[in-house]
Amino acid sequence: MQSTSALESSVLVLNKFFAAVHIVNAKRAFTMLCKESAEVVSVDDGQYNSYDFSSWIDVSAFKLECGLSDNDQYESIKTFSLEVRVPRIIRLVVYDKLPKANVKFNRKNLFARDNNKCQYCGKKVPTSELSLDHVIPRTQGGTNHWENIVCACTNCNKHKGGRRPEEAGMKLICKPVKPRHCPVIQLKLGSNKYNSWKQFLNNAYWSVPLE
């Protein structure tokens, strides 16, 4: 399929030693492939195959033409002259460093940490209907950090107001903590679409920020 979302789909980036270092969108991945600073890594029947951009275009054309079974696991991008599959994994051909481990404190990671669930009633709701609540209100000295902010649905947030949970007769489902690893990656690994990532994300690499 082809859509704007295909260009925004996630691609795992490995360093030259096949260690996971980052996640980028497909648009950025194609840019690196075109500049020959990266190659595609495809996991086929448990084996790694590497392709430069030109070879990947040929492989995409062959698999699309033959309608091979893994085709439905890939989005594809169409141009006037070709159709190419969005890779799941690319490998930097020079870069050999690992970034400093750190999980960014932002809305995306907070929503992912709490799995889009209100931490008071447990209801899972779309991001657009979810808010962030200060467990200890800022008016009572509460600060912006992992241990003091949770996801809350509109009703629970309204009921709690500017009070602490116990003052509002409410209780947290889970104690908020700073995640050791990027929460977003855990959500993606729950999808069959990203199965090929798992063998590159073993315990040795879980300290790497994948965002």
In brief:
Residues 105-158 form the HNH nuclease domain. This is Endonuclease. By secondary structure, the chain is of the alpha+beta class.
Commentary on this structure:
The chain is of the alpha+beta class. It has helices at residues 4-8, 26-34, 53-66, 107-113, 154-160, 183-188; strands at residues 10-14, 20-25, 38-44, 47-51, 76-78, 83-85, 89-92, 130-134, 149-153. It folds into two domains: 4-100 and 183-205, no CATH class; 107-168, DNA Binding (I), subunit A, CATH 1.10.30. The strands form three sheets. Strands 2-1-7-3-4 form a five-stranded mixed beta sheet. The two termini are 25 Å apart.
Topology:
Blueprint: H1 4-8, E1 10-14, E2 20-25, H2 26-34, E3 38-44, E4 47-51, H3 53-66, E5 76-78, E6 83-85, E7 89-92, H4 107-113, E8 130-134, E9 149-153, H5 154-160, H6 183-188
Parallel strand pairs: 1-7
Antiparallel strand pairs: 1-2, 3-4, 3-7, 5-6, 8-9
What count of helical segments does DSSP give?
A: 6
Mean of pLDDT: 83
- Class based on secondary structure composition and strand pairing: alpha+beta
The largest sheet, given as strand count, sense and whether it forms a barrel, is: 5 strands, mixed
Strand numbers in spatial order across the main sheet: 2-1-7-3-4
Oligomer: single chain
Strand % is 15-25%
Global Rg: 21 Å
Q: What's the shape?
A: elongated
The strand count comes to 9
Structurally, the number of domains stands at: 2
Low-confidence stretches: 203-211
SSE sequence, one letter per element:
HEEHEEHEEEHEEHH
Distance between the termini: 25 Å
In which range does the helix fraction lie? 10-25%
Protein name: Endonuclease
Domain HNH nuclease: 105-158
GO molecular function, one term: endonuclease activity
Keywords: Endonuclease, Hydrolase, Nuclease
